[in-house]
Amino acid sequence: MSIFAAETIGTMVLILFGGGVVAVSNLSKSKGEGTGWLTITIAWGLAVAMGAYAVGGFSGAHLNPAVTLGLAINGDITWGQVPTYLAGEMLGAFLGAILVFLAYLPHWAKTSDPMAKLSVFSTDPAINSPISNMLTEIIGTFALMLGILFIGGNSLAEGFNPMLVGLLVAVIGMALGGPTGYAINPARDLGPRIAHALLPIPGKGSSNWKYAWVPVLGPLLGGAYGAFFYLAFFKDDMQIGFWIMSAVMLVIIIVAVRGELAKANAEAAVNNSGAKTRGIK
Q1: Closest CA relative to residue 52, chosen from 143, 168, 138
Q2: For the stretch 233-263, what's the b/e string if a residue is b when 16 or more beta carbons lie within 10 angstroms of its beta carbon?
Q3: What is the pTM of this model?
Q4: If both were cysteines, with which of 12, 35, 115, 192 could 92 make a disulfide (CB 3.0 to 4.6 Å apart)?
C-alpha cells in the first residue's frame, strides 16, 4: 500500500470513529445522546489508536499534518514525502466525515441546533478568543508531538505504541480540550469542515470559516515546536528553528495574555459602571 493510500484510509478511520462519537452525543434521537465529554475524549483516543493500527505498517500512520511536519523536522521522513502525507490526510478526513454523515442520515433533520451539527465535523471555541484559542491548540499539539516522540524513544512491546498514543490523545482532550474542543490536527478539522460546507445537511447553518484558521495554524505551530523542543532537549541538537519558534511562542503568549487582561478589565469597568448607575456601592 502506498503512503498516500495508507494515510487516506487511516485518517478516514480516525474521523469515522472520532466524528462518530460526537454525533452519538450531540445529535437528537441518538441512543447515546448527551453522553458527554468523557465519552468523547476516550473514543477520540481509541479512534487514533485504531487508525494507527490500520496503516502503521505502511506509512507510520501520521494521520495528522502537524505530526507529519514534526516528523519531517525530526528527520523521520524526508521533506519530499510531506505533500503525499498531507494529501492523504486531508482526503481521508473528508471521506471519514462523509461516512459519519451517512451513518447518522435520519438524525440531522431531527437536530435543531446548527452548532451541534457543526461540532460533529469540526471544532469551535467555548469562548471565542482567536489568539487565546490558537494558544490552546499550540499547547495541546506541542504535548501531542512531544509525546509521540518520547513514546517512540522507548523500547516497548511491538504493536503497543498506537494504544499509548491513543491514551495520550485522550488525556490531552480531558486536560486541555475544554477551551477549543482540541482539534490538535489540521486535517481533522479542515477536511470535515469542507465536508460540512458541501453536504446537504438539513438546517446546518454556517461552517464558521472565520474560526477555521485557528485549528489549522495552531496545531502546525505546536507540532513544529514540539519537534524542535525534542531535538533540543532529548537529542542535544539545539537548532536555529528552536530559537525562532521559541520567539514566536513568546510573542503569541504575550499577545494572548495582554488581550485577555484587557477584556477582563473592560468587562470589570462596565460592571462597575452599571453598579454605580443602579446606586450600588
Answers
A1: 168
A2: eeeeeeeeebeebeeebeebeeebeeeeeee
A3: 0.94
A4: 12
